[in-house]
Amino acid sequence: MTDRSILDRAAQDILQANDRGGYTVPNGQVYPFQWNWDSAFTALGFATFDRDRAWTEIETLFSAQWDDGFMAHIVFWRDDEGYFPGPGVWGTNKKIATSGITQPPVAASVVRWLYESAVTEDEKARAAALYPKLAAWHDWFEDVRDPDNKGLVVSVHPWESGRDNSPEWDEPAAAVDISGVEPYVRRDTSHLDASMRPTKLDYDRYLAMVQYGRDCGWDHKKIATEGPFRVVDVSMTMILIRANRDLLALAEALGHDADAEKLRARIANAEKGVAWLWNDEVGAYCSRDMITGKSSGMITSASFLGFYAGVVSTSQRSLLIGHLERIGRKISYMVPSLDPDHKEFDPIRYWRGPCWAVVNFLVATGLANEGLNDWAERVRLDTGALIEKTGFYEAFCPVTGRGTGGGDFTWTAAMWLHWAGRTGADQAQ
Ligand code: GLC
After folding, report:
1. What is the CATH number of the domain that holds 229?
2. What domain range includes position 52?
3. In this predicted structure, what is the pLDDT of residue 428?
4. How far is the CA of 162 from the centre of ligand 1 (A)?
């Protein structure tokens, strides 16, 4: 067997080992439940060898959807002492226990991809059955997270971004009152090296935000308009724009004409709204605090998701490519989660420097869509090289390639199978 087929096999084994029957856990020890955007990426990995299982991953996730369309970032199918904060801390009081915050909506894009590559009629029927659920989640975003109809999306917890500990959240989170945080014991630092994880102060703030949500009975409208942390996250925003485009393609294919009309208007509004995130001083898209109006001024891997959303103008394009070139000269592996020229850059600490295969995939997809094929390929090959060198880690140091966070990670294995581990020949298929 070639190295590549050994890795293919190992990646499949990881997906199967982390399969808990209808859903996968990102990593059995550190993350023992179903995570929202992880499952979407995981479906792409399953689709390379078991398409039925790929659909099931998404269907299971959506079976925990709330009546108002909300989709939680974690579904606690069974309890596990090894994780904090568990279902009791969230206190969402739903029949199926979930967290009370959401995560980037990658699912519609994945369902579109599965639909368009469908082999059987049954697969198309599964897409059709998922469509109203996806549409309800996207409506929830518009209704609850864009109350003033500005074409933006508010995030109410750093964990919603999926880039949990990005320094973009430091300043907005510092304003959160932590005086009422109840005593707690973290679990993450018993599984992982503390130097790679968020600090105690970060964790206190995370918990204060969870308590706020729980204390107001997870009234999402209130949290989005009065909550202590309200940030327009560049990754959530860009991923949602792209997801709305993909949902539109599904609406058109499945004959949901009224929805298609609504989605076109929503996308046009978001294309205007997103201008608020462009920071002229740094020449990039950055997240912005909704409460203070302040831009983070930080270039992160998410800054390059403008391509994925299809919102980058010609002048922005050259500025963003300039940043890619500068960053690419500084480190060995693209795309670091923070600009290596930024003072907060830490190549091994969570979302403050390391590279993530899933973000790389989204960035590269956007670059390829814009015809920036050399850059798309650089990002893909770097991702493959990191996995070949180190294994299927949660994330990787962009300087040395060392693995960071948990090992045998589901979404890294999925990204190898679907994208990073493919040769030129099978990519064309
Ligand atoms: C961490 C990541 C988040 C991911 C989760 C499970 O919280 O920051 O993006 O969904 O782990 O892998």
Report:
1. 1.50.10.10
2. 3-421
3. 45
4. 6
